[in-house]
Amino acid sequence: MASIIYRKQRCSNMENTRMGGKIALITGSSRGIGRAIAERLHEDGARIAINYSRNEKAALELKERLSGSEIFKADISNRNEVRDMIKEINKKLGRIDILVNNAGIFNLMPFEEYDEERVERMYAVNVKGAIYTTLEALDNLKKSMGVVLNIASNAGVGTAADNTTFYSMTKAAIIILTKRLSFELGKYKIRVNAIAPGWVESDMTIGGKTRDEIGTFEKFFMERTELNMIGKPEYIANIASFLCSDEAAFINGQVIVADGGRIDNLTHSL
């Protein structure tokens, strides 16, 4: 109860300037983890560029709640659409100080049932999307000496969860992209870090499932965390808030695994 009261107090504090009016582009921010990050960074004083691909209704609803924000439609796997989105953000919001590469898709399949179309789509969104958005936002980020935050997954570290081989490969790519960009972009004073969440209850993980199926999923993952917990989008948003702020000014090229202490990973070491 105390944490709920504290959160309400923080939401009502209109003088919160932790982000100092910075402009944050969060891909895939109409729902799930991206939405939670958008809400938290807005509470911290940032103006939000809300990106969506299909769910315009959810994006518009979020825009109404986050004063000073704008919505931008783009399929991040299409570089032309990303380029046009960045141009629109510059017109409407003036710049980009923070880029959160959050948008992603999740396709489960056994290794033996490799589906090239589905795997290529995952790679296009999860990996190329982060590359395209970072490239197109780079001029902005150089000027602002900004921040890139990539949302990876503990799957990219080595989860034992069934049928995640190809999804895990895309998230492993995001982890090494984070580390490489920290070297490439450090000369511009651009910080690049990542969060690797474990199983988080969101539209992507429980959408379309029955209550019984959700309960089975929750039990499975709770039993595989040292804390016996289910991940919530706000847990990831809290980490994002820190990594995107000046409080993390000396942190670069790091991957924060936030999974409740999963006991079925090959390793937690990065």
Short description:
The protein is an alpha/beta fold. 47% of the residues lie in helices and 13% in strands. α2 (32-43) packs across α9 and α4 (79-93) packs parallel to α5 (116-144).
Q: Oligomeric status of the shown chains?
A: single chain
Flag low-confidence runs: 1-15
Q: What would you give as the CATH superfamily? A: NAD(P)-binding Rossmann-like Domain
- Average pLDDT across residues? 91
Structural class: alpha/beta
Rg, please? 18 Å
Beta-strand percent range: 5-15%
CATH architecture: 3-Layer(aba) Sandwich
Total count of domains:
1
Q: So how many helices?
A: 9
* Order of neighbouring strands in the sheet with most strands: 3-2-1-4-5-6-7
Order of helices and strands: HEHEHEHEHEHEHHHE
Q: Could you give the distance between the termini?
A: 35 Å
**What is the number of E strands?**
7
Summarize the structure in words:
With 270 residues, this protein is α/β, with parallel strands linked by helices. It has one domain: Rossmann fold. Helix content is 47%, strand content 13%. It has nine helices and seven strands; from the N terminus they run αβαβαβαβαβαβαααβ. Strands 3-2-1-4-5-6-7 form a seven-stranded parallel sheet, sandwiched between helices. α5 packs parallel to α6. The longest helix is centred in the middle third of the chain and has 29 residues. The chain is globular, with a radius of gyration of 18 Å. The N terminus is likely disordered.
